Every structure is written in structure tokens, then in C-alpha cells.
Amino acid sequence: MRPLRSYGFTTLLVGIFTLCVWLQTPPALAALVNVTVDDDGADAITQSRIVYTPPDIWNKGQDCQGCLAHPDSSYLNTWHDGTFKPTTPNLLLFASFQFEGSALYVYCILAPDEPRLLSASDMTFFIDDEQVGTFVQIPTQVTQYTRDVLVYSNTTLPYGKHTFMLQNGHKDSKVGTLTMLDYLVYTHDNGTSTAPPFNPTDDKSNSKLTIIIPAIACVITIGLVVAGIFWWRSRRSRRRRRQGRVDLIQFDPEPVSYTSPVPPITSGRPFGAGFTSDSKRGLEAAVSVEDPSEVDVMMAGSSRGASSSAVGTHTEQPPPMYEP
Questions:
Q1: Quick one: residue 109, left, alpha or beta (phi over 0 = left, psi -120 to 50 = alpha)?
Q2: Among 184, 218, 262, 307, which residue carries the largest CB count within 10 Å?
Q3: Which residues cross the membrane (predicted)?
């Protein structure tokens, strides 16, 4: 049984060590990937596309013959062109996209100040129906077509499904604006882990706590287990000692008496009176003498003592009855 107990104790220690290692190990980081969605393409993961409303106001810039804006290059040589006109101030343009992730980046092409071209930028951004940013650019600040302009970014989104919407223009605005949407990028977890991504701007004290707290918990756990083991072994040892004392008491042999009780002598009957031939034979067997004549001498002496005693003593008690 001792090897079995040793094996159990070793297994317990290994389990405690594994628990401590697990507590000290930081959670696995999510395997994040950036997914790029072209203005005229589909999401490689969900196959969803950017939705443009009203659809007849937005144009595929690379195919638009009547459009005035023609950039030199763009991502995948495509872009969507939408113009807000002051003549219809309440007709706003929207581009929306649904995604699952924790960050979003929106890229546009900016146009220079050219004759007859409404090249100003006035964009408002929404995520989950909440306004989260704006981008305003006057034409004189742009001297040439500029691609890959980051007009909006958000890296603090809680991971999950979100709806992004870009709005071109404002109601009752007197300024015409142009939006050339090129592409957007969002950060997505590819499914290998559900842990939130690590943010390097987090307070360093949080990382220290993630090490100190598991270490303290591990030390306390080990201390409790060791104290429990010592208490259990001490209790078992005391129980064994008590059981040993009980066993000694239960199995202590009683002393054996080798003396036979002697029947009391009746004061009214002298020793030797009433001996018969059977008594003589019994006496011979009891004393185991070699010479039977000694028994006769003993019997005669006993008879004489009885006679002399009987002369001076008279008793009213009847003689005792002896079985033959």
C-alpha cells in the first residue's frame, strides 16, 4: 500500500504544478487578420458588398463617361463616385457595409480644385447608427488627385458585428461635395481564439496584476494542500496509536491460577473422621505414595485424633453426607 500512497501524493503535486503553470500562462491572443474590401468587390470572408444609396446617384468612376473626376490610379483600378449638389440639398448619399471585427479603416481619393468640379469633401461617419467622426476638406488644400487617403479609422471597437455608414453632404447645405470611395479595411478574428486582441496602450499595472494575482493564488493553494496533508497524516498516526493501545488491552492474557480451592473444614467434624475404604483409595491416588502402608498410618492417626477429640467435644450437627 505504501507505493500506492506515494503515487497518489506525486500525482497531487503534479496537478498543483500544472495548475500554477496554467494560472501563470497569459491568455492566447486572437489570430487577427486584416480584410480589404474593394469599392466594387465582395468581402472574401462573408461575400458581402458595400451598399450605395441612392444607387442612381452613385457611379462606378472607372466606367463613368460623364463624370468630371478621373484619378490617375486607384486600388484595383476602381472607385465609386458620388456628388452632393446644393440644388437638391436634402438628397444625401450613403455607403454602408456590415462586418465582424474590432477595427475599421476607410480610404478615399481626393480631387484637386478644377473648374466645374465640385471637389470639396464633407463626410460624416456612423457605426451602429451612432456618429463617430467627420472628414472635411476644402479644394484649395489638394493640388492633385491623391489616393489611399485615410478619411476615417477606429481601432477601439468591441469585437463583434457592426454596421458602418458613410454620409456625403449635409441637409440644407449650400456647398457641393464629392466623395470617391476607393476601399475599406477591417480587422477580423479568423476563429483560432476568442480572446480579445492585446492592446499595447493598456496600463502596465494590469499586466503586473495578471502575474501577481495567479502567483499568490498558487502559493495559497500549495500551502493549503500541504497543511491538509500534514493534518491528515497526523490524524491517521494518532488513530493508529490509539488502535494499538486498544489491541493490547483486548488481547492481554489473563493470569492462570494453578491452585485449586480447598473446601472449608467443618468445625464440628475433626479432620480424618468418616474416612472409608473409598476415601482411602482416593487419598492413595491424590498423594501418589509408593508405600500403601503410609496411607494406613495416616488413616490410623486421623482416627485416633478423631476419637480423642470426640471425647471432649459433643456436637448436635449431623454428620455431612458424602457421595460414595
A1: beta
A2: 184
A3: 211-232
